[in-house]
Amino acid sequence: MTAFAHIPGHRFLHAPGPTHLHRAVLEAMGRQPLDHGDPRLPALVAACEDGLKKLMGSPQAHVFLYATNGHGAWEAAHANLFSVGDTVLIPGTGHFSESWAIQTEALGAQVIRTPWIEGFPLDPQVIEAALKADTEHRIKAVLTVHTDTASGMTNDLAAIRAAIDAARHPALFVVDVVASLGAAPFNMDQVRANVVIGASQKGLMCTPGLGFCGVDAQALDVARRNPNPRFYWDWIRRLGKESYFKFCGTAPQNLLMGMEAAFGLIAHEGIDQVFARHDRIARATQAAVQCWSRAGQFGFFSQVAAARSVSVTAITVAPGIDVEALRTVARERFQVAFAGGLGPMTGRMFRIGHLGDINEAMIMGCLGGIEAAFAVQGIPFESGLAAAARSLSQSI
Ligand SMILES: *Cc1c(COP(=O)(O)O)cnc(C)c1O
Fold first, then answer.
1. Which CATH architecture has domain 12-19+270-394?
2. Does residue 65 contact residue 49 with C-beta atoms inside 8 Å?
3. Which of 144, 242, 296, 341 is the most exposed place for a label (fewest CB within 10 A)?
């Protein structure tokens, strides 16, 4: 199973994270580490922080990078913002809002959830109503998932910001951009997000291993006054200039080297071009899924076309289709790895990741491999390859 070296050609990694890595990122990660006194080290850290601030659209934000994953970045934000017994609102977006809620409860907070409606993005009015009902302002923060990777849907953050404002509620706006940053437009300052939470292995084109929080002045002030005991995650402790303080110990240097290289690639392409490429590739994928659906075995999970994510497409399957068998055939015979459903969607859907270091030929290869796996499994489908190619030909 591990003998990848004997497989000829390109293996198509189409999970919605981890994502395919550019050679420049892999090569950068293969460099020798630096000693703590080397001036290249602060320059490396600054390049990563600046790259994140540019992608977040907030030159003023503080960036705290951790050797961790998205769950660790959730915990970092929690440890700094909340204490045991605090109340937060987590609007239901699917598996990721629910995972966040479970982790938040495990850390001792009270979670108010809004119901998740399968196939639909967040309704800002429901958030406004939940905040208005909180007349004593017990809710400390609204923890919102931008793109729920399990639902394949992106929520309208500007509308959610407007809902918080309309409720005249002082709750912090905390946004999880793990699956959207570097793929879909996002601007921390425009939506006045107080905290932004991300991880390296999705749109940021890096390996798994880095998580981060982008923090505005108001949230930093909340952290300063928060008595909750913490050490490794503590933002205030990490405000020092030296990397040893910034990382509460040795910096994860080779991960940072990879991130610096990835941000170099994004800057070289241009961020608007990066977003346009994601949009183009998502549309081609959707064009194929439209055709696949005609034989009645598949469908879009998202009932709202405008909410379909540029990072990942979630496709429901008819009862009787064995998603795990389909994935195994696609991966082992055709070198295409894609994702299954998570949580309540396990066995009911599969998901095609199309974010990060990806191009037109890669998505065509991915869709072709998946069709070959449909054929092996005897699943009726109408081919979507021509529609995908036409979609690509029509978008510039
Ligand atoms: C992947 C993901 C996470 C969790 O990240 P890990 O790195 O797997 O811990 C959290 N939120 C969203 C929206 C994600 O897509």
1. Alpha-Beta Complex (3.90)
2. yes
3. 296
C-alpha 178 to ligand 1 mean position (Å):
6
Does the CB atom of residue 178 touch ligand 1 within 6 A? yes
Q: What is the pLDDT along the chain (396 residues), one digit of tens a residue?
A: 555 567 889 999 999 999 999 999 999 999 999 999 999 999 999 999 999 999 999 999 999 999 999 999 999 999 999 999 999 999 999 999 999 999 999 999 999 999 999 999 999 999 999 999 999 999 999 999 999 999 999 999 999 999 999 999 999 999 999 999 999 999 999 999 999 999 999 999 999 999 999 999 999 999 999 999 999 999 999 998 888 899 999 999 999 999 999 999 999 999 999 999 999 999 999 999 999 999 999 999 999 999 999 999 999 999 999 999 999 999 999 999 999 999 999 999 999 999 999 999 999 999 999 999 999 999 999 999 999 999 999 986
Cα separation, 279 vs 394, whole angstroms: 12
Ligand 1 within 6 A of 63 CB? Answer: no
Closest protein CA for atom 6 of ligand 1? 70
Fold of the CATH domain 23-267: Aspartate Aminotransferase; domain 2 (3.40.640)
Domain ranges within the chain, ordered by starting residue: 12-19+270-394, 23-267
Domains 12-19+270-394 and 23-267 share a fold: no
